[in-house]
Specification:
about 0% strand, mainly alpha, 5 helices, about 150 residues
Length: about 150
């Protein structure tokens, strides 16, 4: 019997193929505008102070990685906030404001999850376009200094 990964019934992703919903503001990988549009989009999602970090301008793969981690934390924060709110409201009469606040947490969590998925796509595409050397350069600079 064939291993499931070897079966013709299991869809496989082509090497280099992108999965998920590609962000509309980012040009397709391989285009002349890809890297610049990816960096602009990532900076638009990131905390404003990150634009002043020159290392992110030189290393868009690391910008994408750090932003993905930031969004992971945001998803967890929304989960924790929602859980705390529901615990605080347990057994109490819910007002319209309480329901709206719960809905806001749910919307923010869904937004962060969606953005995290799109950032992961861009990160993967940048990694493929710039090669693994981009990550190695950053690691080497951390070890050896500027």
């Amino acid at each position: 019997m064939a291993h499931p990964a070897e079966s013709d019934n299991v869809p496989r992703r082509r090497p280099g193929a992108l999965r998920g919903r590609w962000p509309g503001a980012v040009s397709r990988p391989g285009s002349a505008e890809f890297e610049a549009s990816a960096k602009n989009w990532l900076f638009d999602l990131a905390p404003a102070r990150w634009r002043h970090e020159e290392v992110f301008h030189r290393n868009p793969v690391e910008l994408a990685c750090m932003l993905r981690l930031h969004l992971d934390a945001e998803v967890l924060a929304m989960q924790a906030g929602l859980k705390a709110l529901r615990t605080a409201l347990a057994g109490r009469l819910r007002r319209a404001d309480s329901i709206e606040i719960i809905e806001a947490y749910v919307r923010e969590q869904a937004w962060a999850k969606g953005m995290r998925e799109q950032v992961a796509l861009v990160e993967e595409a940048l990694h493929q376009a710039l090669g693994g050397a981009a990550r190695k350069r950053v690691a080497w600079r951390i070890v050896t200094g500027p």
